[in-house]
Each structure stands twice: as structure tokens, then as C-alpha cells.
């Protein structure tokens, strides 16, 4: 067959398995989302609809891929944890990275009109993704702590910055200057004393990010032990850094 | 800062550069498109609108990434050639694979209604992607020959198969049985003698696939030598296996 | 400088770090040692001097590389465990593999005359090496169990095989035939009933392989807590599969 | 079998093939040879016996591995070119790197007494190795040019430096100071005017390094075309940067 004389080119596709029995952390980020949020008029400091759309897309990815046991989202990024025993696509890195990034993107575009009914997409948004393998549970806990600490730091800054601009009448340059060198407690103080904003009462979605995980269906707990329990995906905006989150879910990292 | 005690987790992100000075071939394929085409009622053996949508998405990707010098599409797959000197994203494999797959997917979903105005997407389609590095021009020529030979073999089979079913009244099982063990010339003969179809007069898009490449704007050829010539992306359905295609474009693989 | 116009070729040296915080298992094997043992007249089923030479070379490698915490040898192979926190050569795989293989080889050739004073090397022996990263302690325990179980299976077979040949007067073909399909207990029985050999009383070096590990110097245990304790490398031929070995050394895999 | 329950640990051995149809450049370097040359009293600026030993070891490696078509040595390093079509060890990187480094080391130690009959090895020398894949002939030419240019620069510096010390009575600190900021022509001038040394008349081995390549046996050229011609390995100290070397050997990089 004519084909066979060329098919040697397949030999250049090198194997790219992720090390067995490591957790795979898949993270994606919006590509050039600074421009994207400007063009599409996202609200500052947080656009509720945009975050809901991210959560929706992430939930769809989790529904399609049962080996994802936990996800965390903030701003235009989302992290997904695949259980360490997963054999998804034989653990081929490019296959997993590309397929998950593609499905998330597809959901983001498809569900966009639900969250922005009056604002059609001006151009196609895109995301980049990567997989990071982690050997131990400790790394996974620290990974999610890293992201949630980042959410906190960014959100406190942004909340204060945009209060100075939107309510305080500062220019963005002035607001940056006001915040230069300030500590966390200074920003809390600015928010409260100047704008009567108690930071800790802001929407937990903004302060804590979005956590998606599977829970067993309540009715299912009574069902036969033999049947694999049905699960549903729940969305939380709670602390993921302290021990409580993990102690309450002792099987989360078990597989 | 709270963040810094966790940021060591970034050290697990290993470098993944593609070998310098090799051509990068990026190919993507529809994920579970057998089901997707069924659910969305694609016409057999070829759905013209669906192929046009693929071409549109591919063209958008090429417009965004000037280092893509050539692309080839058939069915639910598309191959993109990045010039060997590209330093896109510092040649990081995951970054390139995920970003290009994401942008293509985004275009596919965003432009879907243009080609299927009466058929809304029932669920989010996705694609998987991979990069294959090729050291030499010969490999690139053979790669595209491999894909176009594949197009030919598949299309001849499918054209004959669906003629037997749609016009010949065979079941799909009967049609498969009819074609078992047949050679290329047998299928031509079946098409012509039973259905008055001259295979070589079928739409070249189906027989040859879609080729996208950059051409200099005609008016631009007169412009100052110093200015980098403006280019436009053209769509062809011609032979890419024989020497002519390559001889006519001596600079295509030059960089 | 003339040099600089060519130095771009360094860019083709791609990074090859081993995933952080994983144990590195470095194993080397004799290259074509079947022929090597024939040419150099190794005794069957085990050549004591050759095993001592392997142990000597391995000990020298451990002395040079303090991050090796454990080693196991049998026949013409040796495995070395680098602690998971090692930053030896920035965890570059080729650098570690090549350097350790080279040093072992160098010792093997240099110390050869000590163990084979009347048998000069007929040609240069060589070894191949590889690094396997393991995420968890369980994998390390199972790795060493895998090697020691292999030692047992091979040694029981070889002990019986060579008894049949050397004492029983069988040809090698006959001895293979005798052993085909036999179980472990059958081999014990053959050894005992035909040759009065109690397998369990054979030299533990043959049955258990060689284990090298660091122990604190006894006198050092009284020394100041602040000083890093001096250690010496000890050679054992004990069971490494059961829990005892590991329970007695709770810090062995700690770093 | 006891073994099988542990043998899953083999799954952590990841594939590491070098990209097909690329040249593989294997380079090894002496490990901590500054100390090694001091302890073993190597002559400065060049020790003829040590270079001959390197050449001997390299020649032995080439004899064992017919897919090595060219080698270049200087000081304590050697580079070996494997032909691009080689399928040695299925192109597995660790296997090739470790085996070649091991064999070279083995030869170095084994043949040491031939070159240093009165100076036994004080401790085992070792080497590190790496493989760099190159896509094109141009890269290979530039690679060897890079090494030979390096040889020239180092040797000119060292020749002048040691003349200042050994014949000029400078301390090493003074000699370094004398040479700081000098150009090539300044060093030639120092050598000639102060020490009557015409640099270009120094032994070509020092100035050009050592080149090993295969040549057909002269008598063999008349032999049957069908027989694969017998070759021998020749040692040259000629220019490898200019075109002549390559033009005279048009088939050197052909496979």
C-alpha cells in the first residue's frame, strides 16, 4: 500500500509516560487573559459570572474524567488532581494535557452565553496546560495550599486596589503607589477604615477560590456495600490549607 | 509571605524543550468523533460543512501563530508544521501542544453555528494533540505524503462503502463484506460500473484533503525589498506527495 | 573568539533532571558477563572472589558518594539507593548514571588483581547502568525484595544445576532437563537426597546476596549530639524482605 | 513465584529513546581530573603518555562499537559520533551512555600500566558521559569545530603559561597575570620572543587534538564489491574545521 512506505514517520513519536504511582496535577491558565478580560468587560476586582463559567467548565471536565478527584480554581486558572493510580490514556503526558485542556476550552466557549448572555465572544479564548507529577501526599497538600495562599494574596490586593480606584477616586497609578510596601494588615485597615469593607465578609468564592470534589450521594450510603457508591461533584469555597479539610476526607488521596 | 513556604512545589515542573533546529509537527485529532458525528448527524461519506469548519479553525490557528508554515487536514484531524527555527514558547512541548489544541478547539466551538446554523452543539467536542519532532526535510515531505495517502485510502473506501449503502441499498455489514479484500482498482470499478461515479471527479477536498499555506500578497511583490512581505493564507486541495508541490515552493522548509 | 561561533551546539544538550523528592535507584549490570566469566574461568555456581570484588567496588562507590544509603549486590549486578533528598549533580540523570557506572568499573578493573592475582584480565570488562525513580518507601522495599527474591530463585537453581553436573556427572543439557518444571522444594530435595547438601547451610552471601549500608561508629554514639556522627559501611548477607531489616533501621529511608 | 509480586517495580523504568535519524554525539570527560593529574604527576602543559592512553581507550571503544564513525579527543575528554542510522541498544540513552563510559573507563584503567609503567594508579579514575542528539550534518561539523577550536585556545594558553613558569621562572600567579587580557597573537609573540618557541611547530597532537576514524584497508579496495570492506581505525592530528577534511571523506556522515 502506498501508505506503508511513509509510515516510518510514526517512529518519531516518542513515548512520554508520567512516572507510575505519582499524583498528576494538571493545571491550566487563560492565555493572554489580561486582554481577554478587557475586551469582554470583566468586572473588577472579580467577575462573578466569569468565575461561575470557570467552575462550570471545570465541573464538566471532572464529570467526564472520573479519575480527577479534586480541583481548585481561581481567576483564570484551574488545577485538577488525578489520583495516583490513574491509568488514563496509559499516563501519556501529551495526550492527557491536550485532551483535558481541549475539553475545558470547549466547555468555556460552549457555556459562555449562559453566563454572558448579552456579550458574545469577540474572539476565541484559549488556555495552556501542563502536568506536574508529585510523589507524595504532602506535596499535594502543599500544592493546593500554594494556590489558595496565592488566591488570598491576589484577592486582598485586588480588593483594596479597586476600592481605592472605584470608591476612592484614585487613578490606577495612584492606587498602586498607595499599596506599595503595605502588609496584609495595612490592606485590611485601608478597606475597613476608608471603605467600611470587612474583608473577611467578602464572598468566600473570591477569598478562598473554588474547590470541586466528589461526595457520595447521601441516599447511597445506605445502599449495598457491593455497589460502587454513586457520587456527585460539589463546589466549596472553604479553607484547604489547614488540616481540617484533609482530616475530614481521609480517603481523598488514598488511591 | 505565606506563599513562599509552599512555592517549592514549582520545582516539580520539569523542563520539556523540543530538540532545537528540528521541525515540529503538531497534529490534533477529534476525540471520540465517531460518536460526535453520529449525534450531530454528519453526512456520509463526507460532511462538507464539517470539513469547512475544520479548515476555518485551522486557518485561525495559523493566523495567530506565524511560525506555522503549512497545515494539512482530513476528516477530524489536522497537522501543523512549525518551522524548524521556531522559538515559540521557548519550544516547550506541553505549552505548545496545549495552547494550539486549545485555540483550535475554541475556534471549532465558536464557529460551529456558522456551518451548522440549525444544529446546536449537543455537548462539548474535544481534540487531542501531540508534537512530533523531525530532523530533516525528507521526513516532513514523507509525513505529509503519509497523511495524504491516508486520505486517499480512507476516502476511496468510504466513497464506495456509502455508495453501496446509500445508492445500492446494502446494509453496512453487507457493504463491508462486499469490500473485503478488494483493491483500489476494484473500488474504482464498483463506483463507476454500479453507480456511474468517476472517483477522480469527486470534490478534490475529499480526495486530497485540505492544505493551508502562506503566500505572498501579489501586490506585495513589487514593494520594497526591505519590508517583510505581507502574506495571506491560502487553501488548496492539490497533490502534496509528488515533487511539484515542493519544487514550486523552494523556501517552504527553508527556515 | 573562534570558539563562540560554534558554541551554539551546546544548546542541543537537553536538561534531564530526575523528579525531585523521589528515591533514585541506580542499578548496574555486567555487560556480556556470560562470556566474561567463561574467559576468566569463574567458578560455578558462585565465584567467591568475583563476588568479593563486586562488593569491594560497590563499597568504594558508596564511600565516594555519601548520598548512597543502601546497596544490594548479586552475581554481576549491583543496586544503589540514593536518598530521596539528594541533590547530587543537580539530579541530572546522565551525569549520575555515567559517573557512578564509571567509578564502579574503574574499581572493578583496578582491584581485580587483588582477587584474581594469578589471572590477569584478558580484555576490559564493562557494565551498563540505569536510574529508576521511585516515589514511595513501599516501592523501595519492594525493589530490594524483588532483587533478593531473584537472588534466591537463581541461586537455588544454579546450586542444584551445578551439583547435578559437577557431582552428579550430568551434562548441562541433562541437568536442565532434570530441573525442568521442578518447584523450590524439589530442588531442595535433590540437593539433600542426592548430594547431602542442606541448601540453607550454604554461604549466606550466595543465598541472600550482599547488602551494604552505613552504620554509626560505635564509639561515636557517645559523642556530642551536635557533631554529625561518623559512619562506616558494613556488609551484610541477611534477609531484606521481611519487616525486621527495615524496622531495625527506621531512619534508613527517612531522607 | 515470590518474585512476581514485586516485579511491578520494573514499571518505573521509563523509556528513554534518542530521536530516530539524528546523529548521536557521545562525549565523556575526566571526573575531577585536575586532582587526578596532580596526584599522578602529569607533565605540563601536556602529558604525552596520558594523551596516548586516552587515544588507546578511545580506539578500543571504536573497535567494539562499529557504529561509531568518528572520534575527537583533547586533554581528558573524548567525543564519539554514532552514525545517524544506528540502532545500538535500540537507541536507549542511559544504556548507551553508561555502557560506553564504562568501557572507556575500563580500558583507561586496564591500559594505564602500559603508558605509566612506573606509576601505579593511586585511586580509581572516573569519567562522566552524555549524549547530545544533532539533527543535521552542519551541526556535526560545527560540533567538531567547536571542540578543535577549544583545543587550540586552551593549548595556546597552556603552552605560554607553562613556558612562563617552567622556563621564565614566574610563579603561576604571575603567569596568569602576564596573560590576562592577551590576544592570540600576543601569546605567539611571548612564546617566540622570550622562549624561541614557534607555536606552529609544536606537536600537532597538542595543537589539533586526536581524530580517530575508519579507513578502508588498502588491499581491500580491490576485493569483491559484494563483500563489506574491511576497515581499520586511523589516528590523525589534522584540521577538522576547514572543508578539506570533510570533502575528502564524503561518506563519513552519509549513514
Automatic annotation (TrEMBL), chains A, B, C, D:
Keyword field? GTP-binding, Magnesium, Metal-binding, Nucleotide-binding, Nucleotidyltransferase, Transferase, tRNA processing
Domain tRNAHis guanylyltransferase catalytic: from-to ranges: 6-135
Top-level taxon of the source organism: Eukaryota
What's the EC number here?
2.7.7.79
Recorded catalytic activity of this chain's protein: a 5'-end ribonucleotide-tRNA(His) + GTP + ATP + H2O = a 5'-end phospho-guanosine-ribonucleotide-tRNA(His) + AMP + 2 diphosphate + H(+)
Q: Does the keyword Ribonucleoprotein apply?
A: no
- Which cofactors does this gene product need? Mg(2+)
Q: Which residues form the Thg1 C-terminal domain?
A: 138-242
Binding of GTP, residues: 29-34, 75-76
Q: Name one GO molecular function term.
A: GTP binding
Record: residues binding Mg(2+) 1: 29-30, 76
Q: Which family does it belong to?
A: Belongs to the tRNA(His) guanylyltransferase family.
The molecule here is called tRNA(His) guanylyltransferase
Amino acid at each position: 500500500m502506498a501508505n506503508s512506505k511513509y509510515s516510518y514517520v510514526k517512529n518519531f513519536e516518542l513515548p512520554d509516560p508520567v512516572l507510575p504511582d505519582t499524583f498528576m496535577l494538571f493545571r491550566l491558565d487563560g492565555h493572554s487573559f489580561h486582554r481577554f478580560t478587557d475586551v469582554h468587560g470583566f468586572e473588577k476586582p472579580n467577575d462573578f459570572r466569569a468565575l461561575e463559567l470557570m467552575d462550570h467548565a471545570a465541573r464538566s471536565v471532572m464529570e467526564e474524567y472520573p479519575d480527577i478527584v479534586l480541583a481548585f480554581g481561581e481567576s483564570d486558572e484551574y488545577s485538577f488532581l488525578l489520583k495516583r493510580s490513574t491509568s488514563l490514556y496509559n499516563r501519556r503526558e501529551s495526550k492527557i494535557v491536550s485532551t483535558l485542556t481541549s475539553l475545558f476550552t470547549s466547555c468555556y466557549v460552549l457555556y459562555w452565553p449562559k453566563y454572558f448572555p448579552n456579550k458574545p465572544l469577540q474572539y476565541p479564548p484559549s488556555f495552556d496546560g501542563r502536568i506536574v507529577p508529585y510523589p507524595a501526599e504532602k506535596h499535594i497538600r502543599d500544592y493546593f495550599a500554594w494556590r489558595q495562599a496565592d488566591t488570598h494574596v491576589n484577592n486582598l490586593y485586588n480588593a483594596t486596589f479597586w476600592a481605592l480606584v472605584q470608591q476612592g477616586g484614585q487613578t490606577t497609578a495612584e492606587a498602586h503607589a498607595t499599596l506599595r510596601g503595605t502588609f496584609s494588615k495595612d490592606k485590611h485597615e485601608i478597606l475597613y477604615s476608608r471603605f467600611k469593607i470587612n474583608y473577611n465578609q467578602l464572598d468566600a468564592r473570591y477569598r478562598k477560590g473554588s474547590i470541586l470534589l466528589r461526595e457520595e450521594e447521601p441516599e447511597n450510603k445506605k445502599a449495598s456495600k457491593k455497589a460502587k457508591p454513586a457520587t456527585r461533584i460539589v463546589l466549596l469555597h472553604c479553607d484547604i490549607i489547614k488540616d481540617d479539610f484533609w482530616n475530614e476526607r481521609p480517603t481523598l488521596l488514598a488511591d
